[in-house]
Structures are given as C-alpha cells and as structure tokens.
Amino acid sequence: MDFMRGYFAIGVEGISKAMNVGSLFRTAHAFGAGFVFTVAATYERGEGGKSDTSDAPGHIPFYSFPDIGSLVLPKDCSLVGVELTDDAIELPSFRHPTQAAYVMGPERGELSPAMAKKCELVVKIPTRFCVNVGIAGAIVMYDRITSLGHYPRRPISPGGPTEQRPEHVFGDPKIRKKMEKFRDAPPEGEDTP
C-alpha cells in the first residue's frame, strides 16, 4: 500500500458471530489497519480464523475490551460509529479523521446508546437497509483509502485515470530552535574555544 498519513483501526461492539468478525479483521489487515478490537463481544479466534485466513490478530494488535467503560484509544484518535441512523453523516460526504477507530454494532442490532454517545462522529453507508458487518467495514475502509490515499481524480468519461498518481514528497527536516543550542554546545565539562 502506498504512503498515507495517519492510521485507522476497526472494531465491533456486542457481536456474537466469530466468522463475521474474522472476515472484518481479515479485510482490515488487507487495508493496513493499525489495530483491531472488540467491545463487549464474544470472539473466539479459532472460530474467527476460519474466515480470517490472514490471521490478522497474529500480525496487528488485537484488543478485547469487556465493556464500553474499558475501551481505551490512543491519544487524539477519533472514535467513529458506523450506523444507519437518520442523523448520521453519509459516508460519501464524510471527511475521515487522520487518526480514527471505526466501531460497528452487532448483527441484528445497532450500536448501544452508550457507544453511540462515546463516538465523536457517526457515519452511515447510504443503503436501504443494513448490510453484513464485514461488508460495511470493507466499504468504510475502501472509502477511507480512496479519500485519503492521494489518488488522482476520477476521469469524466468511463475508464482509467487520465493523470498519474502523484509521488509522495517528504518535507525537509525541521530543526527546532530550542534544540540548536544543545546541538552546537560543547560536551559537558569542556570549555568553549
């Protein structure tokens, strides 16, 4: 995968079907997730491994939080709920946070009111009804990659892009002024010439 700033994680709340979680985690691993997690969920890795043939929890951090109160995210990481509600932001109009953890609700259910309240933002996939949690997660991750991945704009007519994807340019190193005096100072115990 090409360079993209920030990171993302994906998780589920209250889910009980390990195969769905396994599928979601495999897709997250493929899209380059920083970590995966469950909250108040029953997830047996052996059962989930039947659909997670990449063994995502064996290659990226996996966190299992017993309840919402124990959910801990990295500093400045935005929790984004994925839920089909009237007041949620439609995914095609959503600007993804640079540092985000996406959480989805259980099968045949929705994010709990406590989890929805904990979310900084809530997005919805504009569908007529809810789709499988693995499919929903894949759509959200794909949208994140296409919107933050520095891809060229889509062409006006059918077919591939008419412009090349720009190369990522790393900026010049920045030396902080406070550090200059320490960098240029003689080692401790030596006199200045």
In short:
The chain has 193 residues and is an alpha/beta fold. The chain has a single domain, classed as SPOUT methyltransferase, trefoil knot domain (Alpha/beta knot, 3-Layer(aba) Sandwich), CATH 3.40.1280.10.
Could you walk me through the main structural features you see in this protein, from its secondary elements to its overall organization?
The structure is a single chain. The protein is of the alpha/beta class and 193 residues long. It has one domain (7-148): SPOUT methyltransferase, trefoil knot domain (Alpha/beta knot), CATH 3.40.1280. Helix content is 27%, strand content 17%. The chain is built from 6 helices and 7 strands, in the order E-H-E-H-H-E-E-E-E-H-E-H-H. It has helices at residues 18-31, 45-48, 56-59, 113-118, 133-148, 177-184, and strands at 7-13, 35-39, 62-65, 78-82, 89-90, 99-104, 121-124. It has a 7-stranded parallel sheet. Helix 1 links the parallel strand 1 (7-13) and strand 2. Helix 1 (18-31) runs parallel beside helix 5 (133-148). It is globular. It starts with 6 loop residues before the first strand and ends in a 9-residue tail after the last helix. 29% of the residues are buried.
Topology:
Layout: E1 7-13, H1 18-31, E2 35-39, H2 45-48, H3 56-59, E3 62-65, E4 78-82, E5 89-90, E6 99-104, H4 113-118, E7 121-124, H5 133-148, H6 177-184
Parallel strand pairs: 1-2, 1-6, 2-3, 4-6, 4-7, 5-7
Helix pairs in contact: 1-5
